[in-house]
Write a structure and sequence with these properties.
By secondary structure, the protein is α/β, with parallel strands linked by helices. It has two domains: 159 residues, Rossmann fold, CATH 3.40.50; 88 residues, Rossmann fold (3-Layer(aba) Sandwich), CATH 3.40.50. 33% of the residues lie in helices and 18% in strands. The protein has eleven helices and 14 strands. A four-stranded antiparallel beta sheet has the order 1-2-3-4, with helices on one face. It is globular and about 60 Å long.
């Protein structure tokens, strides 16, 4: 019997052989079909051996399920895991050297943007285009399971996906005790007062952590004025440049500045929708609720 698994958050349809068990764990792999973000059907009859993974989340996922050795190239913005330093780069996030890709003779090119798809397919390459996850971070497990199917390493993918979901559940159980009247307001400034709105990964993280995003009315990422930030008076600021907020006299009376709750994230884990994203959520939760997450902090 063919099993159909609809990955609604990513608008993907995955088809593989085998029965679906009660835990919805993936059991069988080939033949395996993915409908990509352009509606094209991409079929896998065997695991690709030479993958150009042009997406940071895909690279992190492949390494996390112990399939990183299949990656023969990526782009220069990918920085994790450390092993990527040894992987050839065939461009950056916005430019792809098609000739270099062709010379590498990949049996799969995975891209996050449709920009490169026509040239790659016209060159006779097998291309899987899945739009970068920019909302619904929970769909990260869908991507983990997809790569498990593609590489044939379903067991590792199942374990990683289960661990991701369990970690989210542990965080949610801690956050459940926070009453609405005790909610903090928060703002993340990614630079030059560009901030994430409600319909972003960070916006969803703020919802999960039961904090009020003072930029929730922004669509995607947008630039807001210092005056608006001052008027909305966030309790917590997440920024790459804490000194700017403390040194600029305009922000002296913002609650976050007065209480010293201006934080720099300890890592880049929240910048990539991959397996480490949940660790980034935990890091932010520890900053916001140090007492609630004391046991997490001691890990």
């Amino acid at each position: 019997m063919k099993r159909l698994l609809l990955l609604a958050p990513l608008f993907l349809l995955i088809v593989s052989c085998g029965e679906m068990d009660s835990d919805v764990e993936l059991l069988q792999t080939f033949p395996y079909t993915v409908i990509d973000s352009m509606g094209n059907t991409i079929e896998f009859t065997e695991a690709p051996q030479r993958i150009v993974a042009y997406d940071a989340g895909a690279v992190e996922t492949l390494f996390a399920i112990d399939e990183g050795e299949r990656i023969i190239a990526t782009h220069s913005f990918v920085t994790y895991p450390p092993e990527v330093e040894q992987i050839p780069k065939v461009g950056d996030a916005f430019n792809l050297n098609i000739e270099k890709v062709i010379d590498l003779k990949p049996d799969l090119v995975y891209v996050f943007s449709e920009t490169f798809v026509p040239q790659l397919t016209n060159a006779g390459l097998k291309v899987l285009y899945i739009k970068t996850v920019d909302h619904n971070f929970r769909s990260t497990t869908d991507m983990i399971e997809m790569w498990g199917q593609i590489t044939g390493n379903i067991d590792s993918a199942n374990k990683l996906s289960k661990s991701f979901d369990e970690q989210i559940s542990r965080i949610e159980s801690k956050i459940g005790v926070v009453e609405s009247k005790s909610q903090f307001s928060i703002l993340q400034d990614v630079g030059q007062f560009w901030v994430p709105g409600a319909d972003t990964l960070m916006g969803e993280v703020f919802n999960l952590l039961n904090v009020i995003n003072i930029a929730e009315d922004v669509s995607g990422y947008g630039q807001i004025s210092p005056e608006l930030i001052i008027s909305r008076d966030p309790d917590i600021l997440i920024t790459a440049d804490a000194n700017m907020w403390f040194s600029d006299i305009r922000f002296a009376n913002i609650s976050a500045v007065k209480t010293g709750k201006v934080y720099k994230l300890p890592s880049d884990k929240l910048s990539v929708a991959g397996p480490r994203f949940v660790d980034g959520i935990e890091e932010l939760a520890i900053l916001i609720y140090p007492e609630l997450f004391d046991e997490f902090r001691k890990k």
